[in-house]
Amino acid sequence: MGFHDTLKKLSLRTFTIKRKKKPENDPVGILHSDRSTFSRIALVAQTRQMDMREVLSYPLGPLPWSLSTTSGTLIKTSKSALLPLLFDDNSGSETTDNAGDGALIVDAMALLRAMKVNELPSTYGEFAALVLSRLCRFMSSYKRVDFVVDTYRQVSITNLERTSRMSAGALRQHITGSIQRLPRQFSKFLAVGENKSELLEFFFTQWQTPELMSTVPAQKELVVTSGSSCVMIKNNDASPASQPLPDLVCTHEEADTRLLLHAKHAACAGCSHVTIKTPDTDVAVLATAFCRSIASRLSLLIGAGSRLRRINVNAASNKLGQEVSSALPGFHAFTGCDTTSAFAGRGKKAAFKLLCSDKPVSVLARSAFVAVGNKFEALPAEHIATLEKYTCMLYNATQCSSVNDARYQLFCTRSLQSSQLPPCRDAFLRHCSRANYQAGVWRRCLVASPVDILSAHQDGQGWQLRSDGCLTIDWTDLPPAPRSILEFLRCGCKTGCSGGSCSCRRHALPCTDACGCRHNSPVACTNCMEELAACENEDAPLADSVDE
To answer: What is the 3-state secondary structure (H, E, C) of 269-320?
Structure first.
């Protein structure tokens, strides 16, 4: 190679390889945990009495594998699989937009994430103007446009999901002014909650300057939120102004619920039709559940470009029926969302099909899901029993009413790993608590500042508050297996286990192959099953002769 020749690009190993990690739901990790537990079970079962029903009432691992990944995070399911079940082509689609004087409610973060990197301007000031121009473009079809944001709290159940999104990389940058340059790694910038809070507050301030307020079309309304604040910007008679909207000052954390609150406000303000623009399945569920409480016709705008689809939420909800629609928040939280686990290997489609069937358990399950989230207290025992039976049906254990019984039946009749079994009852009850809390937040989406949410503590609702102020998932209080297996009692005798020094004999237990007397003792063990059986056989004829 000559001195001036071009060097070929080499694939050198860098520190980025350290970021690669095993898949969260790693079957190898689960198999290693199962192997450790079941090897102890096999040894104990050889010589000692053991109730497998009791054993299977434990999680059989450091975490309940039917709800948790090997890294301790929530098992995820495809939430979008629920959309075609809620909105089929015959009941929920609209091909034309006849909004007229309607309102468009926009999910702020979905709008920002949809922007391509090559569309981003150089500075924050230009970015604020670009986003505002896109909102004003919507006003050609709508009288009112709402820009609805999330809030980001230090202690929150949603932080667990946001932390997992930051695993791909995060970039923290303080916003100091409009001429500051926008980071090129914009997706990493949006992965940090503090960045999003500062960016949305920057928009909120910039859009209320006379220069940008004048770009809002005349006789149109722009509703902008930031934190708990909300203002309406109008440009009437060439005199732009902003005014606060006290009815929309709220304590909602997620934009999912705040979008419905704004939809209700727009309907009450006289908008004949309200459209929510969002890709989130959670919002679709809430819109279907609560559209009857919104005075105007409600639609969803999903997708982009040629795949843009308008959904008539009222028509879809009417086809599902009021009972199924009202059950959706509890059902969605129970079968898996951003803050609750899905059941491993059990998706939305099968669960929804079971919910809508005519089986007796489905009828009871619909009533139970309607009650999930009505109160933040523990669910009544009858609803817990119904949800337990519903879970057994999900796992095709049709003859069982308890998840522990279903675990035993499936373990005996099929060759399943512990991740393929239903959760044990203790983990199941905590999962119900998390689903009840999340559904409770959703069911109060039409109230600006629900008092019972402020008084309800997330700690103890299936989560635990650590000493550093962070919430973690409270999976279960149970150990992985019964104490007799975890603290596997084995002696180290070298004298045949004939005296009181043998720990197995003191606890009235026979020695097993794991005891030292089987391998290190020159004298045969007298406390093993074989010796004890031989003694019983020698005593049996003597007992017969005495009886004779």
So the answer is: CCCCEEEEECCCHHHHHHHHHHHHHCCCEEEEEECCHHHCEEEEHHHHHHHH
pLDDT per position as a tens digit, 298-326: 999 987 767 788 999 999 999 999 999 99
**Single pTM value for the model:** 0.83
Six token digits for residue 206: 């910039």
- How far is residue 157's CA from residue 463's CA, in Å, rounded to a whole number? 8
Residues 362 and 384 occupy one common structural domain: yes
What's the CA angle centered on 497, arms 528 and 52, to 5 degrees?
40
Indicate the pLDDT class of residue 393, thresholds 50, 70 and 90: very high
* One domain, residues 381 and 502: no
CB 417 within 8 A of CB 34: yes
Residue 91 — φ and ψ, nearest 5°? -115, -25
Cα(94)–Cα(76) distance, integer angstroms: 31
* Greatest C-alpha distance within the chain: 118
514-537 mean pLDDT: 72
* Domain match, 388 and 450 both: yes
**Dist CA 531 CA 92 (whole Å):** 75
Are both 130 and 168 inside the same structural domain? yes
Range of the structural domain that residue 507 is part of: 489-542
Nearest Cα residue to 412 out of 24, 51, 12: 51
- The Cα 65–Cα 199 span in angstroms is 39
Cβ proximity of 60 and 479 under 8 Å: no
Residue 528 forms part of a structural domain = yes
Positive or negative, the Cα torsion across 207, 208, 214, 217? positive
Count of the separate structural domains present in the chain = 4
Give yes or no for residue 40 having a pLDDT over 80: no
User: Exposed e or buried b for every residue in 321-360, given b needs 16+ CB within 10 A?
Assistant: eeebbbbbbbbbbbbbbbbbbbbbebbbebbbebbeeeee
Residue 277 has pLDDT above 80, yes or no: yes
Tokens encoding 10: 């080499």
pLDDT at residue 484 is higher than 70: no
- For residue 39, how many other CB atoms are within 10 A of its CB? 13
Cβ count near 52 (within 10 Å): 13
Q: Are strands 471-473 and 463-465 parallel, antiparallel or unpaired?
A: antiparallel
Name the residue type at position 126.
E
Distance CA(262)–CA(247), nearest Å, equals 10
Provide the 10 A C-beta neighbour count for residue 304: 11
Cα distance between residue 222 and residue 234, in whole Å: 7
Q: Domain for residue 281, yes or no? A: no
Closest to 328 (Cα-Cα) out of 76, 90, 159, 87: 87
Count of CA atoms in the C-beta half-sphere (13 A) of 209: 12
